[in-house]
Amino acid sequence: MASVQRESVVVTQAVIGCDAAAQAVSAAVAHARELGVRINVAVADSGGNLAAFLRMPGAFVQSIDIAIDKAYTAAGFGFPTGDWMKVVGHDEGMKLGFSARPRLVVFGGGLPIRIDGVLIGGVGVSGASEEQDEACARAALAVIGAEVTQDNKQG
């Protein structure tokens, strides 16, 4: 019987810490206040697990799950949720297939969280316009020193 290499049994995965996740959701809410909007904001770790969540009073209740799913999607795939249409292009099968997947969000407001090039999670914001959601998500990245790449900017 072949022996199993130890590296293949235990894998270390970088994840966002709870303090950074809390700072990120607070920064997103602070930015939403500046914009005069009400949001729900979530941070997921790189495994897609919920690490932090805040709901502003008066934010749409239906946006709670959307914010969480945006964070989950961005953390799982490592690119902004608003980039999904670029990824699938004109492939109708992919559009139909991905849209049928639970928890997958294919519109803006979810951004990956990277520190020194390492994916550690995702942030998702829902409740305002797509542009405002993304601006709040970028504020969350900025407060913890996460990378804001060109792909993380609405464009």
UniProtKB/TrEMBL annotation:
Gene3D superfamilies, sorted: Haem-degrading domain
Residue ranges the record marks as coiled coil: none
InterPro entries recorded: GlcG_carb_metab_protein, PduO/GlcC-like, PduO/GlcC-like_sf
Name of the protein: Heme-binding protein
